[in-house]
Design a protein that fits this description.
By secondary structure, the chain is mainly α. It has helices at 6-33, 40-67, 80-84, 95-103, 109-140, 143-150, 157-194, 198-232. It has 8 helices and no strands. The model is unreliable at 148-156 (pLDDT under 50).
Length: 233
């Protein structure tokens, strides 16, 4: 796994992410206006564009995480509120079903039955990933590694190599878990979209974009209020 400069990787991804959010806002506006009175072919084209937009995000995230995976477990480009909602570097996949329930109210019985099955499968895979993260966290807290970290700067050659090897193992574990989580987020979304009509899909994608942008806006407001309070105290 690459081990690039953390500051450079973070800055580059933040620049990408800020531009990605601007495009997300533009897509939200299109999604809201395309639900009524628009040809199915045009709706399908917009859906493909939005999904490609998310795919671009995941590809850029994977590339950056391969260089500095630690950044994605507490991203400096996110607000404190956004960070509080993170689960393995992103939103929980199950959130999609809550957004679906609030935005699409005309599911057929067959669609609902399939969605219920997806919910069960997603919850199961979420638990597996949560357990994988717990195992990684426990490995960090083991006495041998803790002792090496505490003595950093006073390590002899052999111990320095041991610490380097342990950190590399940690990075690989975190990266693989992050990749699994992102694949689960993406596969859950695609399975749900595959059983929805174009209009239902537009509603779900609009709800997802709106949720992310609202969380972002609220997080920025909270951070600004906190900074103002600190300056005045």
């Amino acid at each position: 796994m690459a081990d690039g400069n953390g500051a450079t990787t973070g800055k580059n991804f933040q620049t990408f992410f800020n531009g990605w959010l601007i495009r997300q806002q533009n897509f939200l506006e299109q999604l809201l206006t395309s639900q009524d009175g628009v040809e199915i072919e045009s709706q399908g084209s917009l859906i493909r564009e939005v999904l490609s937009h998310y795919e671009e995000y995941l590809e850029e995230k994977s590339r950056a995480a391969s260089e500095q995976v630690f950044l994605f477990y507490s991203p400096p480009w996110l607000t404190s509120f956004e960070k509080s909602l993170l689960w393995v570097g992103g939103f929980k996949p199950f959130l999609l079903f809550k957004l679906l329930a609030n935005s699409v109210t005309d599911l057929t019985p067959e669609q609902q039955e399939t969605i219920d099955r997806f919910k069960y499968e997603t919850k199961k895979q979420e638990r597996e990933l949560t357990e994988a993260m717990a195992t990684i966290q426990e490995s960090v807290a083991t006495p041998p590694l803790l002792n090496l970290v505490r003595r950093f700067g006073r390590l002899v050659d052999g111990e320095a190599l041991d610490l380097q090897s342990a950190m590399q193992t940690l990075k690989v574990g975190l990266f693989r878990t992050l990749e699994r989580a992102d694949k689960l987020r993406a596969s859950t979304a695609m399975k749900v979209i595959d059983i929805l009509s174009p209009v239902q899909t537009l509603k779900l994608l609009a709800a997802a974009a709106d949720f992310q942008l609202r969380v972002r806006k609220l997080g920025l407001q909270k951070d600004q209020l906190r900074e103002t309070a600190c300056r005045e105290s």
